[in-house]
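JOB MANIFEST
job_type = single_chain_structure
chain_count = 1
residues = 342
[input]
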Amino acid sequence: MKGRRILLDHVDGQEAAALMVDGRLEDLLIDDPATPRPGTIYRGICDRPLKGQGGMMVRVPGGTAWLRGAKGLRPGQAVLCQVTGVAEDGKAVPVTDRILHKSRHAIVTPGAPGHNVSRRIADEEERTRLRAIAEDAMEGDFGLILRSGAEGAPDAEIAEDIAAMLALAEAVAQDAGGTEPETLTEGDGPHTLAWREWRADDVATDAGCFASQGVLDLIADLHDPVVQLDPGTMVVERTRALVAVDVNTGTDTSPAAALKVNLAAARGLPRALRLRGFGGQVVVDFAPMSKAQRSQVEQSLRASFRNDGIETSLVGWTAMGLFELQRKRERAAILPLIGGVR
């Protein structure tokens, strides 16, 4: 089926959302009750500083969080913090003290005053319109970012989004004090995230739409580490230390086989990682190619990850000819670790 479709359903009793583009699964979100949702805001209590690592361990409901770059904080002090990603196995939940209240059109930023419009909106007349809406809707010392999704949206809809996020920011700020850890807001689940982050021509919300539209079969396919490319394959596997990717030419023995499969892998890697929820250190063993061809493959990688939406740093080539990336753990992996459960 042509076009962009969002499907909202449940998998194993957990809320889930799928984005289909021209009949292909492009993104997948499945709630994981075992880990706090990114975006969750806590009143945490500072526990102990880790000076060598430049951060603070913070007590939060249900466990411990890791606040990087904490300055001017002392043990026992209350601090507002927000979950930024999924914790590595056996490690504390990553949090930040730079709180963001994010909706479809607007982001309210406590502690970062000023009104800004997404740089993705290039039309100056539209930027002027959005700035005017921001000036009318905002009050107090909070900052505001109007997202790219606000482009072309009705004035009233944008203003309503701003008002909702502003009210939430004020409510959270009023609960900042206290002597015990507390969850102040839960992060958005897959259904809300899909509405907030994805754009589509159609949304299916009927129960069982994953089964009727073949999404459950596509999810089952993700358990196979082998990703078919055109040409060749790549094998994507998650270990405790890193995500390993092995690119193979398959039966193609032509002189251009390595470059063709490596370019195909560079284009397909963001989707393969995104659908599986893989993050952290990623190491890619491309098919053997000349050093002259590396720049072409690297350019393709940069172009592919530019539109991915999950923060990824392309570190570069290692001495052994592998390519290394560092990817934010923004969502829980849907597959267990090799050699051990998650």
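[summary]
The chain has a mean pLDDT of 93.
DSSP finds seven helices and 20 strands in the chain.
exit_status = 0
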